[in-house]
Amino acid sequence: MTSTPTGVRRALSDAELAGLFDAIAAATSTGDVLVATINGLYTALLTDLGRTLDTFGPDQRLNPTEFAIPTSQWTAIAAAATNRADEWGTAMTISINLINAMPSSYDDPTVPDPTPQLPDRRPAIHHLRVSREATDIIAACTEHVTALGHRFGLGSDIYQRAATSWQWHLTRLFSMGSGAETSITAEGHLSLLVTNASGFVYAVIFHRDPRVCTVAGCPAVIGDDGSVSTTPARPVAAEHEHQPSYPSDAPTPGEWSAHS
Ligand SMILES: [Zn+2]
């Protein structure tokens, strides 16, 4: 008969933590970081059961929920692993994998907070490749925001929503969270496609506000050509002249959002 592992719940020693942090720092790829983190953690904890990772396989799978370390150590280990991954823009991938593979955590205020070295691992240069069509779209987006400000006022909700969403996405193009090699191409009217070297792809899409009727209870949507459409389920309110939420000759209100 083989004994069933019952798991281990304890704080890692300073030496175990130091070894783990060293192994993470020495990793040279995203996969290496995951292996170093998971192997280091379970090699340490399984020692208490007189076992090693080699004794697990398809027939007997290791169950991470049977193991637990203090929350402060869990957080510091995850921080060290994602920090290492900043070199390749894969911190998000590492986080998702670690959440499923790391032991559980428990609060223990008597365990001191570990202080791993977290140097800036990002490459020195972010290389952006921008197609000429995309440069035109970026300029057009900024011009569109400016036009909304002229038409509706800098204090208007229409201008504020457009300006803040465009500024946020424009700034995100330069961020290095998904790596230091990014390609930006056109994705239609006022919209861009962003491809990161780490494999992450997303679109920045301008969503125009529907031009609705502002009369209470009226479900009418008014097209650029003045045509009126309604949802069949909701009848138009009492006879009235529709009041469009913005005029047909105005720059189109809306905001940018990301879709991956
Ligand atoms: Zn109406």
Head-to-tail CA distance between termini: 50 Å
Structural class: alpha/beta
Order of helices and strands: HHEHHEEHHEEEEEE
By DSSP (H or I, 4+ residues per run), the number of helices equals: 6
Cofactors, ions and other ligands in the entry = zinc ion
Integer average pLDDT: 93
Sum up the overall morphology in one term.
elongated
Strand content: 15-25%
- What is the number of domains? 2
Helix content: 25-40%
Description:
The protein has helices at residues 14-26, 30-46, 71-85, 91-101, 132-152, 157-174; strands at 68-70, 104-106, 127-130, 181-186, 192-196, 201-208, 221-222, 228-229, 254-259. Helices cover 37% and strands 15% of the residues. The longest helix has 21 residues, at 132-152. Strand 7 (221-222) and strand 8 form a beta hairpin. It folds into two domains: 2-106, no CATH class; 127-209 and 245-259, no CATH class. With 260 residues, it is of the alpha/beta class. A five-stranded mixed beta sheet has the order 3-4-5-6-9. The chain has a two-stranded parallel ribbon with strand order 1-2. Helix 1 (14-26) packs antiparallel against helix 2. The structure holds zinc ion. Residues 213, 215, 218, 220, 240, 242 line the site of zinc ion.
